[in-house]
Amino acid sequence: MLKVLLGTSGVVGRNHETLPLITKADPDGKRRKRAPRIWPAALIGILYYLVFYRLLPFLCDALRHHSHSAAIGTVRWSPCTYPDSLPNTECGSIVVPKDYFNLSAGTAGIALGKLKADPGQRLGTVLFNPGGPGGKSKPFIVKHGNHIQAEIGSSYDIIGFDPRGVGDTLPVVRCFDDQFTYAEFKRNTVLERSYDFASNQSHAEIRELLITQEREADALLKAQFSRCSKKMGDDLKYMGTTTVVRDMDLITRTLEGEEALINYYGVSYGSILGQYLVNMVPDRVGRVGIDAIADATLWAGKPPYQWYSQWLSQSEKAYDIFLTECYKAGPQACALVKDTDQAPANIDARLEAFHDSLYYSPVAVPDALQPGILTAGRSRMYVTVALEMPGLWPQVAQQFHEAISGNATSLLNGIQWWNNLIYTDLERSAITCNDLKPFAPPSIEEVVDGYLDVYYNVSRSVFGVVTSEPDAGCQYWPVTPPERFEGPWNHTLKTPMLIITSAADPVTPAGKRVDEIMGSSSRLLVHDSPGHGGFALPSLCLSNYTRAYFEEGILPPEGTICPLEDPLFPAPAHAHTHVSSENETRLQRMRSWRLILERYRRGLDV
C-alpha cells in the first residue's frame, strides 16, 4: 500500500542519488566522503512531512471512500451523530455508480438521513431536496425534518440525500481547502461585495464602471474553475442534475422495492430537480411537490447571464409590496417610515439615495462582527436577498434605518451573515455548469449590456442576484458530463405534480409557466404573498392542501389562491387571535423552518 501511495522506492532515491548518506567503497577502491550529518535529520524531516501532511490525509480520505467501495445498491444505516438529531432518525449511505453508463468509472457514496414515519400509517418514502444547488439535505432532515413532516404528513419516511458533490456524499466538491477557503478567495472582490455604482450616474458612466468590475469577476471565475480542475479532475463531471435523478431512482428501488414509485418534495433548485425527475422517468414517479419554481427549460438551455429577465420578472412587484406595507404599517412597525412621508415612493427614494451615497463615500464599520466597510454593492444586494424572506422585513427595515441614521453595524452584520450563507466551495457551480448546454464564451461587454437591459427594463435587483445566486462562469467549466438531459419538459404523468408558488417571488417566479408547460400533469397552488416560494410565509391553507396531496393524493381545486395569513409588518402587540392554539403552533413552526431552510439551501449545516 505504501509503495502504491508514494510511488516506487526509487522515486525518493533519485531525488538524493548525488547525496550518499553513508561511506561506501566504489569499484575502483576509492572511498567517497561522508555526507554531512544534516542529511539524516533532513530525511527524517522530509519523511515526517510526507507521512503527516501528505500520506495521513490521503489514508483518511481513502478510509472515507472505502465506505462506498461495496456493491452498487448497498445501503448502510447507523445512529446519527449530530448532537441535535431528532428522535426516530437514522443516518447512512447508498453505493451508486459514478457513471450509470460506464460502471468501470467506479462508485460514489450518497449520504442519507431518514426521519421515520408513524409505523401504523406508513405509506412509503418521500425524497427531499432543500435547494441550492448545493444544499445539504441529510442534516436538514435529521435535525429539522419534523418541519417537512408537518407539511406533508407523518405517513412517509422522509429521506434527505446530499446530491452529488455535496455535504457528506463522496466524492465531494473540494476545489479549495482549510488552508485557503473559497470565502478567502472571494473576500472583498466583486464576487463577494457585488457591483458598485450610483444610480444617478449616466448610462455611459455606469456601463464603463461595470465593464471594469466584470473583467475582475471574469478573471476570478476563470481562476476558480482552473483551480477546481486541478484539484478535482474527472470527478467533477459526475455531479449534474441528470445523474442525481438516476440516484433518486436507485434509492427508491433499493429502499422500497423495484416497483415502488418515486415520491419527492423539493424547494427552489429542488423545483429544477423535480422537473428533471418527472420528465426523465415519468413512469417512475408518484407524488411530486415542488415550491419556489425555477424554469428548467431556461436552466438547461441558456447561459446564466440570459436568465435574469425571467428570474426577476416579479422582483419589482415584491419590492413594491415591501415599500407599500412598510408605509401602511407606519413608524411603529416599520422603522423606515417617517411621519412626513406622503407615499411609499418616499421610502424608495431614501433607500436609493443611501445606496448612491455609499458609492461616493463607503462607510467604515469598525464594530461589526467582521469589521469592514459598507459599500453600494453590498447595500443593494442586501435589499435583493431580503425580498426573498419577508418574515425578516421588519428587521431589515430597522437595520437600514440605523445605517441611514449613522450606525451601519447592524446592517453590515446582516450582510455578512448572508455572505456566510453563500456556499463553502464550488458545489453549486459543479451542478449548474454540468447541467448547462455548452455555449460560446460571451464578451465582457455582452454580459454587462445584458445585465443593464434587465436593470433598466425589468428589475434593479439584477446585480444583487448575480452575486447572491452565483452561477456565472460556466464557459470555463473544465469537464463534460456523461449525460445531460435537455427535455422535452412536458411528459404526461399518472399523478399530476403539485406546483406551489408565491404571488410575488423575487427570484423563482416560474410557477405559472411550468404549470402551463406540464398541462394536465400539474396543478398550481398560489400563496397570495411575496417571498421566495409559497412557504416563504406561513400559511395553514397552503399546508392543508399540501398534506392532502401527499397523504391522500387530493389536488387543490383549479385556481386555488391561499390568502396571506401573517401581516408583513406586525404591530408590536400583534397576536393571532383568530386561530386556535394548535394552529398557532403550526404557524409558528412554519415561521421558523423557512429561515432554517434558506441556510441549508446555501450549503450550510446548522
From TrEMBL:
Q: Which residues form a coiled coil?
A: none
| Keyword vocabulary terms for this entry | Hydrolase, Membrane, Transmembrane, Transmembrane helix
Q: List the InterPro entries.
A: AB_hydrolase_fold, Pept_S33_TAP-like_C, Serine_prot/Carboxylest_S33
Signal sequence segment: none
> In what residue span(s) does the Peptidase S33 tripeptidyl aminopeptidase-like C-terminal domain sit?
462-562
ATP-binding found in the keyword field: no
TM stretches of this protein: 38-56
Q: Name one Pfam family in it.
A: Abhydrolase_4
Membership in a protein family:
Belongs to the peptidase S33 family.
Annotated protein name in UniProt:
Peptidase S33 tripeptidyl aminopeptidase-like C-terminal domain-containing protein
The species is Somion occarium
